Amino acid sequence: MPELPEVETVKRGLEKAIVGKIIADYACDTPKMTNFSLKKVKGLKVIGVRRRAKMLIIDLTADHHILVHLKMTGQLVYRSQKKCLIGGHPIEKSCEILPNKFTHATFTFSDGTSLYYNDVRKFGWVRLYNSKEIVNYFTNLKLGPEPLSQEFTLAYLRQRIRQRPRNRVKQFIMDNTVLVGVGNLYSDEVCYYAKVRPDRKVGALTDKEIKRIHDGIIKILKAAIASQGTTFSNYVNADGEEGAYVKKLKVYGRYGKKCFKCKDVVERMKVGGRTSSFCGSCQK
Ligand SMILES: [Zn+2]
C-alpha cells in the first residue's frame, strides 16, 4: 500500500510533469471510481499538485480540483515520448503497455502526453470537487496534522497521548486522527527507532520515549521521501518501483531474520489486527 513518502514522491514527480498542461481528454471505464466526465474538465489547465495525507490533489483552473486516492493498489503513470514516471503501487511492466488491463482512468493533455490511473483491485478513485467541497471532505475525515508540518509538535503528541492513554503505540501512531501518513510499514520502523514495543500503552511511555517516537516519525519519513525521490524521478523498471528505502528497513518485513543491532531474531505479533515486526531485545 502506498504510504506517505510514496505519495509525496508521486506529488513531486507529477508537479514537474503536468503543471501547465491542458486537459484534452478524460475517460474512465469504472463508474464507481469517478464522479465526472470529460465535459467538466476539457480545456482546463493544471495549476498545481498537492498532497494531503495519502491523497493527491490536482488543482485546475476554474476552481476545479481532482482528488486521487490510490488506496491499496492504485498507481499513477505519466507518459510522454521521452519518459515514463510511475508512482504508487508497483505493478509489473507498467510502462511497457499503456493503457493496460489495470488502467481505469486516462487523462490526455493537449501536448499528447497522458496520465493513467491504474488499479489492480479498484478500491481507489479519481473525483472532481470545487475548493469548498475539498475543504468539507477533509474536515469530515477529521484528519490529524501532517507529520512534517509545524503543527506536529512534541507538545501536540503529548496532549493526544493524555487523551487516550490506553492506546497501543502502533495503533496510536497509525491513527489518521492523531497524525496522518504513518501506515503499517513506517509504524514498525518508528517503534524500532524509539526502542519501544509496538504493543506498549502510550500512557505508560516515558518522556524520553515519547520524544524518540516524535523524532523517529519525522526522521524516518524524511529519509524515506529523500530516497524515494531519486527512484521515481525518471523512468523506473518494475524492480525499482518499491523505492530505495526498502533497503533501509530495520524490522518491517524482516520477521525471522537477525536484528541489525543486537543479532537477536526479529519477532512478530498482532497489534490491533495488524502484524507488527519488532526486536524483543532492542525494544522495551
Ligand atoms: Zn535488536
UniProtKB/TrEMBL annotation:
<dbReference type="GO" id="GO:0008270">
    <property type="term" value="F:zinc ion binding"/>
</dbReference>
<dbReference type="Pfam" id="PF06831">
    <property type="entry name" value="H2TH"/>
</dbReference>
<keyword id="KW-0238">DNA-binding</keyword>
<dbReference type="Pfam" id="PF01149">
    <property type="entry name" value="Fapy_DNA_glyco"/>
</dbReference>
<dbReference type="GO" id="GO:0140078">
    <property type="term" value="F:class I DNA-(apurinic or apyrimidinic site) endonuclease activity"/>
</dbReference>
<dbReference type="GO" id="GO:0003690">
    <property type="term" value="F:double-stranded DNA binding"/>
</dbReference>
<keyword id="KW-0456">Lyase</keyword>
<keyword id="KW-0326">Glycosidase</keyword>
<comment type="similarity">
    <text>Belongs to the FPG family.</text>
</comment>
<dbReference type="InterPro" id="IPR035937">
    <property type="entry name" value="FPG_N"/>
</dbReference>
<dbReference type="InterPro" id="IPR010979">
    <property type="entry name" value="Ribosomal_uS13-like_H2TH"/>
</dbReference>
<feature type="domain" description="Formamidopyrimidine-DNA glycosylase catalytic">
    <location>
        <begin position="2"/>
        <end position="124"/>
    </location>
</feature>
<dbReference type="GO" id="GO:0034039">
    <property type="term" value="F:8-oxo-7,8-dihydroguanine DNA N-glycosylase activity"/>
</dbReference>
<keyword id="KW-0511">Multifunctional enzyme</keyword>
<dbReference type="InterPro" id="IPR015887">
    <property type="entry name" value="DNA_glyclase_Znf_dom_DNA_BS"/>
</dbReference>
<keyword id="KW-0863">Zinc-finger</keyword>
<dbReference type="InterPro" id="IPR015886">
    <property type="entry name" value="H2TH_FPG"/>
</dbReference>
<dbReference type="InterPro" id="IPR012319">
    <property type="entry name" value="FPG_cat"/>
</dbReference>
<keyword id="KW-0479">Metal-binding</keyword>
<keyword id="KW-0234">DNA repair</keyword>
<keyword id="KW-0227">DNA damage</keyword>
<comment type="subunit">
    <text>Monomer.</text>
</comment>
<dbReference type="InterPro" id="IPR020629">
    <property type="entry name" value="FPG_Glyclase"/>
</dbReference>
<dbReference type="GO" id="GO:0003684">
    <property type="term" value="F:damaged DNA binding"/>
</dbReference>
<feature type="domain" description="FPG-type">
    <location>
        <begin position="250"/>
        <end position="284"/>
    </location>
</feature>
<dbReference type="GO" id="GO:0006284">
    <property type="term" value="P:base-excision repair"/>
</dbReference>
<dbReference type="InterPro" id="IPR000214">
    <property type="entry name" value="Znf_DNA_glyclase/AP_lyase"/>
</dbReference>
<keyword id="KW-0862">Zinc</keyword>
<keyword id="KW-0378">Hydrolase</keyword>
<protein>
    <submittedName>
        <fullName>DNA-formamidopyrimidine glycosylase</fullName>
    </submittedName>
</protein>
